Input
Amino acid sequence: MPIFPKKLYSVVWELTLKCNAHCQHCGSSAGKTREKELTLEENLRICDQLIELKCERINLMGGELFLNPDWKKIAAYLSKNGVLVSIITNGILLNQENLDFLKKINTETIGLSIDGGLAQTHDDVRRVPGLFNKIFENMPNILKAGIPVVAITTLTKKNILELNILKQKLLDAGFRGWQFQMAVPYGRMAEKFLLSKEEYYIAGLFGAKNKLAIPQSKFQITCMHDFGYYSKVIPIRQKLFAWKGCPAGKSGLGIRSDGKIHGCLSMQNDKFAERDFRKETLKEIFYSKNFCTWNKRFSKYKKLGGFCKECEYGLICLGGCSDTAHSVTGNVGDNPFCYHAIEVAYKNLKPTNDFEAIFKSITQGKLADDGKFYLSTKEELTTDLIDKLNITAQQKQLLKLLTD
Output
């Protein structure tokens, strides 16, 4: 049986924790710089080590990456040595000078954080008045630079109902793609804003429906690692890739601005800051048998809990996104935010009201190749049908994400 060598494919690198926004959902509570952030010399050593490891893609972020005075030197060094560089920014400092530089170094993509379909929602979430309009007013300059730009949306109860509004706004503005993920209760993210399982499921269906309805060559929609993982309703081909377990420490890793190394930078708890660049090389860390032991396939499988423990996909899936699982249950192998788990729960449910009844029918329904959604009764889910239901106005808005 052939053995495939471990390969570092991508890295998310936090250049600084300093930030000029104060987002309500920020898992790292960004704002001030971390203690003892890396020097330019140290950052360039990281570059050399990533190049040695033949890492293909680096995502530079913060905090706000533009607030690291050395970000240009770091990005240019990586690009010059054949690494594909992408950036994630809140857009406040995405001025013409920075755009010209990003074009010069052949930046692969610009990820712009946009957290609402309405200016009021986005600006409230980000705590930066006027930012939403500033981003869209700047889009002609961004498009002129010729760098593909992708919107990144973090979903909470505050913006979930604005997905259709935001989709149209992004299409009209010329965005090349849209990726979204769910905010989880780390850092400043309050648990009261966490999506319900029903909101989460509808968001996943929304993504799959629009991947079918919109040519992906024009506008690529990506549901991130916290969406999935197996489903009897959502076609598997709608995933970016077949889910085979959390990739933390296997094909990717995260670098903090103070040199601490995570298997995945989304896992904000300090217990996952396992190693230190200042004490070991990245090669030693990545290939160490003791790195991310919590994510080794068989040991993690034995520790699965809740629904995951009995799930037919358990050995393959390993509890889905470790970040989501740990943040909501304290166990990396017990993840209630899962299409399959929700479908099974509703299949066995005896509805007590109209919303439970329609949602049960949705979770046993079918997403057709043309993007239309059919209930388990074979009836198409339409706006007229939803309007006749005895449910709240907010529940109607949620369901209409699948019809508008």
